[in-house]
Design goal:
Blueprint (H helix, E strand, L loop, with lengths): L1 H8 L5 E3 L2 H6 L13 E4 L3 H16 L6 E4 L14 E4 L6 E5 L4 E4 L5 H9 L3 E2 L10 H7 L6 H4 L6 E7 L5 E4 L2 E2 H10 L2 H15 L1 H7 L16 E2 L2 E2 L2 H4 L8 E8 L1 E2 L5 E7 L2 H12 L5 E6 H8 L16 E7 L3 H13 L6 E4 L9 H11 L14 E2 L5 H15 L5 E4 L4 E4 L8 H20 L15 H4 L5 H14 L15 H6 L13
Parallel strand pairs: 2-4, 3-4
Antiparallel strand pairs: 1-2, 5-6, 6-13, 7-14, 8-9, 8-13, 10-12, 11-12, 15-17, 15-18, 16-17, 16-20, 19-21, 20-21
Helix pairs in contact: 7-8, 8-18, 12-14, 15-16
Length: 529
């Protein structure tokens, strides 16, 4: 592979490495999987990415496979940021290129992190209102399209991308945005690779019309290429929606134009401990009708674990026993927020412990985040691995979900405290399983099987808050109808005929391959939500 690295270094501005020490650094993301790449590339611009894609495509024509995986900060939890081919890291493509303050538009490279972007925008009184991990890159947010804690109110990253520059598997650079049917026809008649792509997509829309309509009935499911249902509106067609939750399997984003907003008023929070499940469900349902900024739920066992490390939130001392911590936040205008907080207080029994944020105790609310962090890093191997996060459970099935978790705990002999967002109906559990042992890896497979059945039995979706990657697809692929499978394969073939862009993610993962790539080494660093 050193010859390939040398050749590529002669043709791009960035760097390509094949040193084992560098490749090992990019062999894991935050999932339960690991795969050591043959090459790691650090492009500096769109042309570099185009040359890397062209190189892989030419190798594919000669029956030599060098699959490509675009990667940001490597915090993907589904195994979609690793490969045995070539990693294309966006670490050097992290520039904020242009800001239009009047139009509230900003152009950035895909490696720009959410935290860095909002820090820069904050100086102008603007923000990208995504309540998610600040280490996430813009490219990663598009690829995974996660349901952030505020997406029920704001709509998530999908609502803020106006246009994207994309390198197709053919190496052609295209702009994805809404186009009128006249423009689409002109592109098709041009005979270019872009025109051929639009021609094939138009045919897919005609051939699978009924399947697409049926698929639109499951909006809380990001499996496959679900956003095929959102690409056509009247006389306009946009391929941009297909990039969201595609996990880099259809094209590589190299430039993005985002719409941003004026910074909202600061949030005020309310925290309470509730021991009775019926009281909990009634309270969260009433609070959710107030349109909160966030509405988060934590099993009290998370706080009990954190207490072992001295991270016990002093604001809410609670009696021992089962129960939940609920944290609500509002960021409306001052008086409107006050009224909503008062309504929250009135929804609880007088004997319930409740604390409302004030200037005096504001810093103490951060102790809840510290408690969660202590819990997540309490696993046998130094962390609680995110096996299958961000599942969707509808409100009317949450009681059944809690009951099913208790049954699952007894079946598998492990504790499964839950945390998540009632506002977005997305929940996480982090079982304490040692993935470095053979028994632990067997337990992971068993857990995936049982947990998938529980979620499906609650009318939920494993991919309600994030797409499937290589991990969840083992369960989600089985739920596709034959027509859906044909539809998704047709989309993949239209964009990536030689399957060089993150193959085996979403549609192609197999049980044997996934088990072979289960992590056998410790994951360094701090586990986060």
């Amino acid at each position: 592979m050193s010859k390939l690295a040398k050749y590529l270094n002669q043709h791009i501005s960035g760097n390509v490495f094949d040193r084992p020490s560098i490749c090992a650094e990019y062999s894991t993301d935050r999932s339960i999987l690991e795969a050591t790449p043959r090459l790691v590339a650090f492009p500096e611009n769109t042309d570099d990415v185009r040359r890397l894609v062209l190189f892989s495509d030419q190798l594919a024509l000669r029956s030599f496979r060098l699959p490509l995986t675009m990667r940001g900060t490597g915090i993907d939890k589904t195994g979609a940021a690793i490969t045995e081919g070539m990693i294309i890291s966006t670490e050097r493509m992290d520039q904020i290129e242009e800001v239009d303050l009047r139009g509230r538009l900003i152009r950035v490279q895909p490696g720009t992190t959410l935290g860095a972007l909002n820090a820069a925008l904050g100086l102008q009184g603007l923000c990208l209102p995504i309540d998610y991990d600040p280490r996430s890159t813009i490219g990663g947010l598009i690829a995974n399209c996660p349901n952030d804690d505020a997406s029920d109110r704001r709509g998530g990253i999908f609502q803020y991308v106006e246009r994207a520059e994309v390198v197709l598997a053919s190496g052609e650079i295209v702009q994805f945005a809404p186009y009128h049917s006249r423009n689409i026809l002109a592109k098709i008649e041009s005979g270019s690779p872009e025109g051929e792509l639009y021609r094939r997509i138009e045919k897919i829309l005609d051939d699978y019309g009924d399947t697409i309509v049926n698929r639109s009935m499951r909006p809380f499911d990001a499996a496959g290429y679900a956003n095929i249902t959102r690409i056509k509106h009247g006389n306009y067609l946009s391929l941009l929606p297909l990039l969201f939750a595609s996990q880099g399997t259809l094209g590589l984003v190299t430039d993005v134009i985002l719409r941003v907003e004026v910074v909202r008023p600061p949030t005020r929070r309310l925290a309470t401990v509730i021991h009775d499940q019926k009281t909990l469900l009634r309270f969260m349902n009433e609070v959710n009708e107030l349109n909160p900024h966030t509405l988060r739920l934590y099993d009290l066992r998370i706080l009990d674990t954190a207490a072992l490390y001295g991270n016990w939130p002093e604001l809410l001392r609670h009696d021992e026993g089962d129960g939940w911590l609920v944290i609500v936040s509002f960021n409306d205008r001052r008086y409107r927020t006050e009224r909503k907080l008062q309504r929250c207080r009135e929804s609880l029994n007088p004997n319930e412990v409740i604390v409302i944020e004030t200037p005096e105790n504001s810093a103490d609310f951060e102790e809840f985040d510290s408690a969660l962090l202590s819990f997540l890093n309490d696993g046998l191997d130094g962390e609680r691995t995110p096996i299958v996060d961000d599942v969707y459970i509808p409100h009317y099935k949450l009681e059944d979900y809690f009951a099913g978790l208790k049954t699952l705990e007894m079946t598998l002999g492990i504790n499964l405290p839950v945390f998540g967002s009632y506002a977005t109906s997305n929940y996480n559990i982090r079982p304490e399983i040692d993935c470095t042992s053979m028994d632990g890896r067997r337990q992971i497979v068993s857990f995936l099987r049982h947990y998938s059945r529980l979620v499906q039995g609650c009318d939920g979706s494993l991919t309600g808050g994030s797409p499937e990657g290589r991990v969840k697809t083992l369960s989600t692929a089985q739920s596709f109808t034959d027509e859906e499978r044909e539809l998704y394969n047709a989309i993949k073939d239209a964009f990536d005929p030689h399957h060089i862009l993150n193959p085996d993610v979403k549609m192609g993962a197999e049980l044997k391959s996934t088990i072979r790539h289960l992590r056998t080494t410790l994951k360094r660093g701090i586990a986060t939500p």
